[in-house]
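thread: overnight batch results

M.L. [08:02]
morning all. the overnight job finished for the chain we discussed friday. pasting input first so we're all looking at the same thing
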Amino acid sequence: MPTCDQIMDADATAQLFDPNIEPIPGVGGLEPSALPGPAAQTALASATVSVSCMWGIPNSDGGFHGVIAQLDPTVRDELIAALEASSYERGTVSGAPSYGADFDDEILGYSVHYTFEGDAWVIVMGTLFHQEDSVPVAERALAALHAVNP
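M.L. [08:03]
and the structure it wrote out:
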């Protein structure tokens, strides 16, 4: 698995989003319960290998997680079937199938975006963050995954 800096370094976050976004080290991985829907929660809980990174703007509610998880093909297929049956927007990222949705909650809106390539599942989830913001992170995560697994 690539490192967090290989997925999204300081120059990339400044260029794509905001010069104040920085890595937030020491934060535990994205908890399965944070994902919307039981299929996604079950899939993340069953991931055999994963890297979970977080970036944010200090002293704000703005930030995002980037996760690459390895899924068993059966789990992946069940998750994709659930996403196909849902209201998630379908698309592609670097030719790989992707699904995303923006959510409004009582306090703060957030976005979730999933991309699948082989047994790799890329999750991008952020507050004050929308679908169009997720795509460049997913692209970089896939590129980093390819770089460490040529």
